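lol forgot to send this yesterday, sorry. struct tokens for the thing we talked abt
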């Protein structure tokens, strides 16, 4: 069933709520960065995420017209060029007014954060809009949409903003837009959304197989090209200009073996033993290879189960990455929420509560492996049981969400009521 185009009033309402919640979440993150050190620790300075400067340094190259050289070894940039391009206007303003950066030398109060910080927080608005539109397509009542946005902002958007990764928020936004288009059987539009998501952050590539299994065999190659070609073309120019640095950053990234923050994976010693500083590639390759296997295995399953499959593939990152950070959890946790919404059409309060606990645990970084085992596995087990109970309480088939007979078992085209 095709997606009904929303009225202008509904579209305006969705954007208004998304802007309001996104601005509130961004303001809280900025206040935290400004007040935490002087109020809690009685220290002079701001708490600016160190990853901020990983994005602003390549953005400076873009703003200066040197797109081909944005992967210089000293900035540690590893995403595709699109996030740096989107950050370039804010970086240009910062440079134009000679604001002080926190890189390469840390300073207590980098004045560039006054421009960079608010600019990064804008990424939360399209993400919250995508969440609201997808939740509405599952039939969630309008009175609950705003509440769900606030809760998802706490679980999904705020952790990414605290670690200064707007590119992850944008990637999730376009993955959710793509899922909504899949439900309406608008495969070309879904492929374009996923293409933008991949250009924002490479992990979004694992969503492409879940689109392809629902496309007619004769159209799969074209759909794959539509979803993958923009990322290839975007990376082609810096690869041609500066192959050595660009290939190192995009194809063979390294990771520090002794990070002071984050949670070390139990598999970290194995990663280091097998591939040394390139150990992070092992988990990423396995995650990419697992995506088509899971998509094919679940192609005839109801839509909520497919959403759980995609979310599970994304959650594998917390084990397969050598060191896990809170913002890694955001995409998988969001998809778990939407899987329950697809089945029950109500806000999963218990699931969101446990997800918030998991995010809070992940925010407390420590390299001790026992902490990883005792914390992560316990909470993930509770989340899994909660999802299972939610789905069993009202089977997805009873809602008409099972794949239509004779069609490929992709994210099913249930009635879209947004």
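and heres what i got for the seq, position by position
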């Amino acid at each position: 069933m095709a997606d009904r185009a929303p009225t202008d009033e509904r579209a305006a309402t969705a954007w208004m709520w998304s802007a309001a919640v996104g601005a509130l979440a961004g303001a809280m993150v900025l206040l935290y960065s400004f007040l935490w050190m002087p109020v809690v620790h009685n220290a002079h300075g701001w708490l600016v995420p160190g990853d901020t400067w990983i994005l602003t340094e390549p953005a400076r190259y873009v703003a200066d017209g040197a797109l081909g050289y944005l992967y210089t070894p000293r900035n540690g940039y590893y995403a595709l060029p699109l996030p740096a391009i989107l950050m370039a206007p804010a970086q240009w303003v910062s440079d134009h007014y000679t604001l002080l950066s926190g890189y390469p030398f840390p300073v207590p109060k980098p004045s560039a954060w006054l421009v960079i910080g608010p600019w990064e927080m804008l990424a939360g608005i399209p993400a919250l809009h995508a969440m609201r539109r997808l939740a509405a397509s599952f039939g969630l009542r309008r009175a609950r949409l705003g509440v769900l946005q606030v809760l998802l902002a706490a679980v999904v958007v705020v952790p990414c903003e605290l670690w200064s990764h707007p590119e992850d928020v944008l990637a999730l936004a376009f993955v959710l837009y793509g899922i909504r288009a899949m439900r309406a059987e608008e495969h070309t539009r879904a492929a374009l959304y996923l293409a933008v998501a991949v250009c924002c952050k490479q992990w979004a590539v694992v969503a492409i197989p879940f689109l392809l299994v629902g496309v007619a065999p004769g159209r799969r190659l074209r759909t794959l090209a539509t979803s993958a070609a923009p990322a290839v073309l975007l990376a082609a120019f810096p690869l041609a200009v500066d192959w050595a640095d660009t290939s190192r950053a995009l194809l063979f990234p390294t990771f520090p073996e002794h990070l002071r923050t984050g949670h070390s994976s139990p598999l970290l010693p194995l990663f280091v033993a097998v591939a040394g500083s390139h150990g992070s590639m092992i988990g990423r390759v396995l995650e990419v290879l697992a995506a088509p296997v899971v998509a094919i295995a679940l192609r005839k399953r109801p839509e909520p189960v497919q959403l759980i499959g995609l979310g599970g593939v994304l959650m594998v990152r917390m084990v397969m990455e050598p060191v896990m950070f809170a913002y890694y959890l955001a995409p998988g946790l969001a998809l778990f929420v939407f899987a329950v919404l697809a089945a029950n059409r109500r806000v999963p309060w218990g699931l969101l509560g446990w997800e918030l606990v998991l995010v809070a645990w992940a925010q407390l970084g420590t390299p001790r492996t026992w902490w990883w085992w005792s914390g992560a596995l316990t909470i993930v087990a509770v989340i899994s049981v909660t999802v299972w109970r939610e789905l069993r309480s009202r089977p997805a088939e009873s809602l008409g969400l099972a794949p239509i007979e004779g069609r490929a078992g992709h994210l099913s085209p249930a009635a879209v009521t947004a």
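The chain has 18 helices and two strands. anyway ping me if u want another try
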